[in-house]
Each structure stands twice: as C-alpha cells, then as structure tokens.
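Many introductory courses stop at the sequence. We go one step further.
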Amino acid sequence: MDEELPPARKVVTRSPARTVRILNLNGILDAPVECESTLERDFVYRAVLCSSVSRIRHQPFQLALTSGRKYTPDFLVTYRSGASTVVEVKLASKVAEYQEIFDQASRLLVARGISFVVLTESHIQRENQHRGAALILRYRKENIGRDKLERVTAALCDAGEGGIPMLELVDHCGITFAVSTT
C-alpha cells in the first residue's frame, strides 16, 4: 500500500459527540496525525514515544471485506524495521459490535503481511500512562541546559525498563519548570 496516498476518508469534524484533533508532533513524526477522539489522541501520544515507531497515518486506506462492506482502519503504524500494524482504537463497550468486521480485516491484513490489533481504553490508558506521555510531549522542546539534560539522561538510564515517575525525575535532577499533576 502506498503510504503517500491521502487518507481513505475524511476525519469527521462536525459532530457534537466527537473531539477532533490534529497532532503536529514535529521532530517526532513527519506528518500531522488526525484523531477523532480523546482515546485516539491518547494512543498517538503513547505510540510516538516508542522508539521503534517511525510513522503513524490516520485513516490510511480502505479494505473491501468479504462481507461486501468497506472498512477504514483508524491508524497504520510503521516501524523502523519496515513492519506495519493496523491499529483500531475502540471503546471496550463497542468491540463486540464490530468483532466480525475486525475478524475479516485481520485475515485480509495478515495475508498481506500487516498485523492487526484492536486497542481499548484499558490498553491505552492503563495506569494513566497516557497522561505521562502527554506530559513528556508537553516538555519535549523545553531547553533545560546541557548539565540538566545529562542528569536526566543518567537518571533515565539508571531507572532501567521500569522507568521513573516524572515528578521523581524532576526532583532528582533539580529541574524547576512547572509540572501539572492533574
């Protein structure tokens, strides 16, 4: 599939039930990503912090399903390795309603060498990790100086895979910018 094609469908922008966002994450992604919900935004925030992710495209293409229906996935995530995953972001309460569509899409995509995953709020917002991701992205352009940057890098390396809470990192490294905990 040609990744330079425009989105397969327009993101819904006029709906009282949706909050549409365009995320410009310059320096992380090469193109803006549109999100039709807060949950989609939270997914993008977490996904862009994965060093293996090189690109995220919204509404990337349309699949003709065996049932005759058409399906447009939420996102196509491309990794630095060249592999791709189609990501469908859905409230857990809605997954059963779309299960047949997801099953058909998964079979078609796997046959093309593309993995498929449905993520719900329990995956994306687990332990409020989406809030931590938003905070990291908020401060990604902060200029804290070379000495503090070296302290932050060392603290993150010392923390290992378990990570370190943001407030603890700020305190440990002596960084004095405002941090919201709400």
